[in-house]
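Lab notebook page, bench 4
Experiment: in silico fold of construct C2
Operator: M.H.
Input chain length: 393 residues
Purpose: comparison with the prior construct
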Amino acid sequence: MNAQQPLLVQTPLEIAQQLAQQFAETAAERDKAGGNPKFERDLIRQSGLLGLSIPQQYGGQGADWKTIFQTIQIIAQVDSSLAHVYGFHHLLIATVQLFSQAEQYQSWFEQTVKQNLFWGNTLNPLDRRTTAQQISENEFIFQGDKSFCSGSMDSDILLCSAYNDEAKLLIGVIPTVREGVSLLGDWNNMGQRQTDSGNSHFEQVKIHKDELLLNPGPLSTPYSSLRPLIAQLIFVHLFLGVAEGAFELAKETVQSQKAWSKSLVENAVNDPFTQKHFAEFYVQLESVRLLTNKAIETLQHAWNQVENLTAEQRGEVSIAIATAKIAATNTSLYITQNIFQVMGARATTAKLNIDRFWRNVRTQTLHDPIDYKYQEVGEWVLTGKVPDPSFYS
């Protein structure tokens, strides 16, 4: 009798790669259509990757940040919209860990793993139109509108926020189907077209006190204020992934092309000007990868410190991520724009929809002005002062 063969267990990166291959088949068409990528989101649910960042004691995989970010990056190479909502799912999981205690989030996390629940975002603390009114000792009412609600459509759990009469930000965790929640599905922008980042409306939505993240709450400790830095590093991996995807597409195209008629060589791969462009693309990508790896290492070290994290250590993470974001922003915009220089006029046909790479990073890089990342890094270089915690740094 033959010995029983061991079961082959796929790694998270292998699963992400399989998803990316499936998403790539329809990415160009879905980008044109916009709307909610329900089928693809269900594939992510079925993959098991939604439990990747949840600690093992709650049934999750307890992956490190490098693994989580790499899965986001792999998906972004073919579809940055899906990478965005998938990345935000893990951001929201981290937000709950940072802003509350295990006795509060244990049941949410266990339920997420068992039912493959997708978390959606209606947080956006800069949009103050949603107000919170306490109507009893244990109950609040959220009323108003919220913009840029990425991943809210087809989500199972929402992270939501409102300001009370004392201008204090309250953040809650509720089922997406909670009575009074309306997701308007009105996102119709030039890029990130399947992120469902439109508006939501809260009409007398009841929030129970035990659904509010109050201990320690947002930005109240150096550790809790890691939340915006995780968001920024998700963006870095989105930009890097899109740039890598555009680079690979351009490389595959050029490898099968004839050189320009004035060139002294027959094939495009031997043309010196084409080689120069690809060298520039490669050098920029490698630079971003190195800076991104350094940023991941500093974040993981800070994450491991938990409440022992100091303000200075937190500031060092902020600088490392800001540096990587500057490089990733510039590189992704440069490569997604200039691949047409090497691919030629045929690459501009509407059917291929290759401009989606540029449109996606151009849209997402406007999330917060990169000028302020330059300012933060420049001030640190000249004075040694690290950035103060905020919702964007």
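Observations: The two ends are 61 Å apart (CA to CA). The CA atoms of residues 93 and 346 lie 43 Å apart.
Next step: discuss at group meeting.
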